[in-house]
């Protein structure tokens, strides 16, 4: 069994909310115990964003330690051959928000799992470890690099908070998701 599958398989369902777990003063679990948290909301006050991760795996040492963020995506027709940069960035944002909350993220891994919608619909109700061992998915593991996420946030902050116009990147796949696009084409592109 691969490391990602083992990390999730060995994690126990958490009996606390994530915020309660992060602030445990007494009755801390043993450092060898890992816990899985599902669909919890987190926020970064320093960078002004909030989100809801799919799964997070944590354990305690001297402080809480984030082992993994698992982000699942369900494309309609094709599994990607590499992770999409916005998906890696999204998972990194969750880890960054936890790091801001005092969680150690020095060895955190970001697991990006892509499963076609049709395949995923057959797996409703199964546990996460089965998802990781399924042969119908594409899974990518990346090391969490806070400096890369912070660099991406600085670029976005220039547009969101400082009024910089977005730089044109005439690429149909990027224009579809861009809030500055009109009818699937870039309003800022000379092409």
Cross-sheet strand order for the largest sheet: 1-2-5-6-7-8
List unreliable stretches of 5+ residues.
none
Derived from helix and strand composition plus strand pairing, the structural class reads alpha+beta
Percent in strands: 25-35%
Question: What's the helical proportion of residues?
Answer: 25-40%
Distance between the termini: 49 Å
Oligomerization status of the protein chains: single chain
- Give the biggest sheet: 6 strands, mixed
Report mean pLDDT, rounded to a whole number: 82
* Gyration radius over CA: 18 Å
* Large-scale geometry: globular
Q: Count every beta strand, where a strand is a DSSP E run of 2 or more residues.
A: 10
| Number of separate helices | 7
Order of helices and strands: HEHEEEEEHEHHEHHEE
Précis, in short:
With 191 residues, the chain is an alpha+beta fold. It is built from seven helices and ten strands.
